[in-house]
Amino acid sequence: MDKLQIQGGTRLDGDVRISGAKNAALPIIAAGLLQEGPVTIGNVPHLKDVTTMISLLARMGVSVTVGEKMQVEVDPGPIHDFVAPYELVKTMRASILVLGPLLARFGRATVSLPGGCAIGARPVNLHVEGLRAMGAEIEIEGGYIRAKASRLRGARLVLDTVTVTGTENLMMAATLAEGRTVIENAAREPEVVDLAHFLVKMGAQITGVGSDTLVIDGVDRLHGCSYDVLPDRIETGTYLVAGAITGGRVRARNTRPDHLDAVLAKLREAGAVVTTGADWVEVDMQGRRPRAVDIRTAPYPAFPTDMQAQFAALNCVAEGVGTVIETIFENRYMHMLELERLGADIRIEGHTAVIHGVPHLSGAPVMATDLRASASLVIAGLVAQGTTDVERIYHIDRGYECIEEKLSGLGAQIRRV
Ligand code: UD1
């Protein structure tokens, strides 16, 4: 099985081009089910999760063509099957995103329940309750969500918890429902906003985009369009932290610095000089050791849970003591144990990790447990003395396009073996 081998100790210096956002591309491809198009989606990242979403639609009979530079064309015309099977859903929880579109456009959907994952219980009760409130008949049977509806009806939905894919599923479903749907306590993540822009381009009527109250007036049909996915803020943040941890300088290009306010604030607090332009952001540590920072994850625009592990790695070699509080996913601490294998000093108390920075880490074999955890191990490997082997990198291929090429371009000594 492939692993990433890193020789630590090189200071990163250079520019990196950011790919399209995985978490926007996935719902946008799923939303292709809603229209009578075809739609053409550009700036799609070449990632395992994207391939999984494409296979999921293709096995339903949807025509999906992938052109040069990952332009994805989706035409649901020939669809003949409305099932998301366990084999695919268990490899990618975001498969749940086909539930709303299938139900709204075709009146039926059978989607496997995702089950547990390495970062804790991740239920989909809010997706199901919201669709039921819109008139769907839903049974949970044999590990599957079996849903049907003649036409969904608009409803007022107040979400108990801020959920990203939950908001996306319900917003997509509401575009073709009869009447008005109001989603309160909606997620405001940039990826939710990007999906809303795509839906509007297909003819959906949505107001309140970017706020926590979305108002959707259902229409009879949606039409095709072309659309480019927004840049990946988490990939951007990951390369910036990689630069900072090595005391180096990294400029991320083709990105949106305005989606990274909370992350950039923490990098400044860590001692980095941060400069931004309309579509780039640069972090320069000027050879200094970072200072420890306190992190508390929460829904956007607060600090993202998907950047927690990378900042935990930064704190491991920083000056001082930093705390990391995870409020979204209760078990998202697996990387801490692997970081300890590299010599980090971490104490976990309930939902808080207290990290005492050490002068240096030393290379060791470590195992990736989930997508962002694996990014944190790679980042730590960049500063660890000697060789770090990161195993189970299929996790990293789910969410980072060409990570070893991009890091090598910044001067890192990293290869896939
Ligand atoms: C999405 C992102 C993921 C990110 C997460 C939080 C995608 C494909 N994935 O995941 O990268 O880490 O947002 O920003 O976009 N919850 C419920 N009931 C539900 C749904 C969620 O209780 O029906 C809870 C979850 O257990 C969790 C919290 O709500 O504690 C937030 O989860 P959610 O925003 O739904 O995460 P995902 O959409 O799965």
Outline the structure in words.
With 417 residues, the chain is an alpha/beta fold. The protein has 14 helices and 24 strands. The chain has helices at residues 22-31, 48-59, 86-89, 99-106, 125-133, 164-175, 190-201, 233-245, 261-269, 308-316, 334-341, 371-383, 394-399, 403-409; strands spanning 4-7, 13-17, 39-42, 63-66, 72-75, 83-84, 108-112, 137-141, 144-148, 156-158, 180-184, 205-207, 213-217, 226-228, 249-253, 273-276, 280-284, 295-296, 321-325, 345-349, 352-356, 365-367, 387-391, 413-416. β4 and β5 (72-75) form a beta hairpin. Residues 23, 26, 93-94, 121-127, 161, 163-166, 191, 305-306, 328-329 line the site of uridine-diphosphate-N-acetylglucosamine.
Write the layout of secondary structure elements.
Layout: E1 4-7, E2 13-17, H1 22-31, E3 39-42, H2 48-59, E4 63-66, E5 72-75, E6 83-84, H3 86-89, H4 99-106, E7 108-112, H5 125-133, E8 137-141, E9 144-148, E10 156-158, H6 164-175, E11 180-184, H7 190-201, E12 205-207, E13 213-217, E14 226-228, H8 233-245, E15 249-253, H9 261-269, E16 273-276, E17 280-284, E18 295-296, H10 308-316, E19 321-325, H11 334-341, E20 345-349, E21 352-356, E22 365-367, H12 371-383, E23 387-391, H13 394-399, H14 403-409, E24 413-416
Parallel strand pairs: 2-15, 3-14, 6-7, 10-11, 18-19, 22-23
Antiparallel strand pairs: 1-23, 1-24, 3-5, 4-5, 7-9, 8-9, 11-13, 12-13, 15-17, 16-17, 19-21, 20-21
Helix pairs in contact: 1-2, 1-7, 4-6, 5-6, 6-7, 8-10, 8-12, 10-12, 11-12
